[in-house]
Amino acid sequence: MTSDDSVDKEATIDSGGTKWGVRLAITTNNLMDYYGVAILILLWEVAPRLGWIDSQFFPPLSSIYGEGCKLWADGTLTVHIAVSLKRTFLGLLCALVLAIPSGFVLGGWFPRLTRFLTPLLNLLGQINAFSLFPLFVLFFGIGELAKFSIIFWSCLWPILFTTIAGVQGVEPLFVKLARSMGGSRSLLLVKVLIPGALPTIFTGIRIGATIAFLMLIAAEMIGAGSGLGWLVHNSSVNYIIPRLYLAALIIALLGMILNYSIHRLEALLIPWKTS
To answer: Which residue has the higher pLDDT, 189 or 168?
Structure first.
């Protein structure tokens, strides 16, 4: 065996060892995540039962699970989840329909108007939707329209701003190339602006959807007869602590699922972003 062959063999062994070490490190990190969750669940169940913490204020996880099974069996939990998700998706959809076309028009075809309107848009975007809830109630009543307005307002501005930024951030060379080849506005929009702006737009969608969902929960605590926010408020008023924790856990879980779903949709529609 020549010296070159031995060097190549050692390099191969080192490369294989490095890859195996990386895989082991990743597996260990994943296991540590699962171990952390398992330990948290175990402590949540054991600590109240052993009297380490007051079970009246921090019930064991089995009690929360039992409360969830009871509400699921009579269909109450399904109704509250469905109502909250329906409100969220309706407001998000309407915000998308308005914000994305407006963002393309302002960012792509009227840059001077965008610069003129930017201070006003920034001012409106800084106004918290929940602080406007009394005005929404004044104009629309305590019904569904007021809660829809909160979701719509929360989603509108992040999506609008990121759409404008995404369109303005498209490589100018691509735009000039499309125009020099005689491309129409519609071709420029479909082939250049939309693909270039989509990653930034999805960032705004994730931010808007997350904020809107949290704002909806707060609005349902004040003026609603159903929904997860109402479930939290009702459980607190009637001192049903396991149900209160159940609603809080479901809200957190749905927020994670919503964010993950948008990430998956983004990966499906924009495969070149992760490639």
So the answer is: 168
Distance between CA 9 and CA 272 in Å, rounded? 36
Tell me if residue 12 falls in helix, strand or coil.
Answer: helix
Q: Give the Cβ contact number of residue 20 at 10 Å.
A: 10
State pLDDT tens for residues 184-213: 777 777 788 888 889 899 999 999 888 888
CATH number of this structure's domain 61-274, picked from the four choices 3.20.20.70, 3.30.230.80, 1.10.3720.10, 1.10.10.10: 1.10.3720.10
C-alpha to C-alpha distance for 249 and 219, rounded to whole angstroms:
18
Task: Flag whether the pTM goes above 0.85.
Answer: no
Give the pair of three-digit tokens for residue 216: 């909806």
Taking only the tens place, the pLDDT of each residue in 28-60 is: 555 556 677 778 778 878 888 888 888 888 889
206-238: per-residue pLDDT in tens? 998 888 888 888 888 877 788 898 999 889 888
How many angstroms separate the CA atoms of 84 and 144, rounded?
Answer: 11
Residue pair 156/94 in contact by the 8 Å Cβ criterion: no
**Cα–Cα distance for residue pair 185/178, rounded to 1 Å:** 9
Domain ranges (residues) in the chain? 1-57, 61-274
* CA distance linking residue 31 with residue 23, whole number of Å: 12
Q: How many residues are there in the chain?
A: 275
Rounded to whole angstroms, the Cα distance separating 118 from 120 reads 5
Cα-to-chain-centroid distance, residue 62: 29
Q: If pLDDT is split at 50, 70 and 90, which confidence band does 246 have?
A: very high
Distance CA 90, CA 216 (A): 12
**CA distance linking residue 102 with residue 115, whole number of Å:** 14
The set of residues, in sequence order, having a beta carbon less than 8 Å from that of 163 and lying 6+ positions away, is 99, 100, 102, 103, 104, 107, 197, 200, 201, 204
